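Final report, closing paragraph on structural work. Over the funding period we assembled a curated collection of sequence-structure pairs, and we close with a single example.
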Amino acid sequence: MSSIKYFISLFILLNITCSAMSEGKLIIKPEHPQKGDIIEIVFDKSGTPLQSVNTIEAIVYSYGKEILRAKELNLITSGDKLTGKFKLEDDISGVVFKFFEGDELIDDNEGNSYYSLLFDDNKKPVVGAYAGLAEAISDWGEYFVGMKRDAETALKYFEKEFELYPDSKILYFNGYISSLLAIDKEKAKDIALTELDILAKKENLSLEELTILQSWYSRFRKADEAKLFSQRLTEEYPKSEHAQMIRATAFNSEKDTLKKEELFKAFYADFPESKMLNRMNNIVSEIYLAKGVEKLKEFFIEYPKAETRDFYNRQALKLANDKSKYDQAKEFALSAIKLAEKELDNPKEIKPEYLTDKNWKKVGQTNLATVYDTYANILINSGNNNEAVVYLEKAVNLSGGKTVEINARYLKTLKTLNIENLFSHAEEFVKSGNANDEIKEILKEEFIKKNGNEQDYLVYLNKLEEPFKTKIKIALQKELISLQAPDFTLMNLNGAEINLASLKGKTVIVDFWATWCGPCLVSFPGMQKAVNKFRDDESVQFLFVNTWENVTEKKSNATQFIEKNKYTFNVLMDEQNEVVAKFKVEGIPTKFVIDKEGNIRFKSVGFGGNTEKMVAELTMMIEMIK
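Its predicted structure, as stored:
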C-alpha cells in the first residue's frame, strides 16, 4: 500500500469506516457514537457464515488505553436481523463486536471484524480511537474476534491517531513500533531510536516514559542508555513493575535456597499484590515441600495465596504413576479438587476484564475438569476404575468433551469396565473432532464387533468425520493468502545446508519455535504426528526453524531437546534471528505453509491445545494447495 493511501483525508476515512459497518451486516445508531451514549446495533446475518444459525451470541469488546473489556450482548431476533442495545462507558475509545455460535462458528466480517470508533461533539474520533483499533488489528483482535493481523493496516491507523493527537505517540509507542518492526525491522529501529533520543532529553519524565526508554533501549541493545533509565526507574518509582522485575530476577538467579526464601519474603512484604508472585509462590512452595508436607502446610498458613490448585495438581501429577506415593498423590489431588470446586462455587480470583462472565465460568469448569482427570488417573493406577470413571464423566461434562486427553482416558476406563454406551461416546468424540488415535481405535473395535469388517469401518469413519472436516475447510478457505516466501539458507542440526528456493516444487511447512516456548513444545507431539503422516510423501517437506533462543550454545541446546524427546524433525538453526525477521513473525509458534511455487498460502499462529484438530488443519492446508 502506497504512502499516499495512508494519508487520505479525515472526511473520506470516516465515511469508509462508517459504510464498512453499514453494508447489510451491521448498522450502529447513532452513526457517530460518543462516550456515555446508549447505542443500538442491528446485525443482518443474511449472507454471513451465520445465516442458517438460529442461536447467535454476541460479545462487545470495549477498548481504551490499557483497557480491553468484554461483555455479553443480549440480542433480540426478528427474521435475519438481530438487535441489541448497550451503554458506552466513559473511559473507552472504541468497540469491536463478535457474532458467533458456540465455540466454533463465527462471523468475522471476512477477517475485518465489526467495530466502531467513538467520536467527540465535532464528529472527530476521540483520543485513542484509531490507536486502539490499530492495537486490535496488530494484536488482540486475531485471538478474540478473528480479525486479520495486518501490520500495514495497523500502522495506517496509528499514523492517523498521531496526525490527530501527536501526544498519543508515547501513549501507544509499544504497539506502533511493534507494527513497524513487523514491516521493516531496520527502518523501525532507526525510527524508534530517533524517537527515544528525543524523549530522553525531556525533563520530568513520567513512569510510562521512563519505562518506554528503558525497555526499548534494552531491546535495541543500547546497554548504557538502558542501564541509566533502569536506575532512574528504580530510584524514582521504587514500586514500579520494573523495580519488581529486578527484584524478581535476583530471586530467580539465587541458587541458595535460604537466601531465596529471604528474597521472597522481602519481595512479598514490599509487593504483596504483585503478579510476579505467582511464579515465586510456586518455587518457594517447592522448597518447603522438600522439607516435608508439614512444613509446606506451615508455609501456606503464613502465605495463603501461595496455596493454589495449580500447585497441588502439579505435585499430584508428578506422583500419579508412583504406586509407593499413592496416598500423597491422592491427598494433593483432593486438595486441588477442593480449591477448584470452591473457586467455581464462590469465585475469589479476579476475573480478567477481557473475559465475559460466561467465559470466566468456563475457565473455572476447565480447571476443575483438569484436576478431576488428575485424580481419576491416580485412582486408575491404583486399580480403582469404578470411582475413576465417576470423576472422568464429571471432567468430560465440565470440559464439554473438548479435551482429547480426558476423552481418551474416559473411554479407556469405560472399556475396562465393559460399559455399554462406550460406542456412542466414542462416536460423538470423533464426530466433533475431539478424538485421537486411541479413541478412533476403540471406535473401530466396537464398530467391527457390531457391524462388520474394517473396510466398512473406514467408510463409516470418513462419513462421521466429514462435517468436522468440511467445517475446517470452510474456515481455511477464508485464510488462504498468496505472498512470496522470503528465501533463506540455514544449517540443520546435522550440518547440512538447507535452502528454501531449492525446495521449489514441494509443499513446505516452516515451523518457527524455541525451547523456552511452552505452546511450541505442547504442539510438538502433534507436529510429530503430522511429520509421520507425510513421511512417505516426497512432495511435502517439514522444516522446524529454531529461533529467538537466549542461550549461548544454541545448536547444542536444540540438539539435546530434540534427542531427549526423540523427535524426527529437520531442525534448522536461525541463530542470528534473521529468518524469523524476514518472515515478520510476531510470536511463536508460527507456521507457514508454502506451495510448490514458493508462495506462502497459510500462516498459523499459536497452538489451540487440540492436537488432532491441528493435524487435521495442517493436512487440509497441504491438500488444498498441492
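Confidence is low (pLDDT under 50) at residues 1-24. The two ends are 30 Å apart (CA to CA). We thank the funder for supporting this effort.
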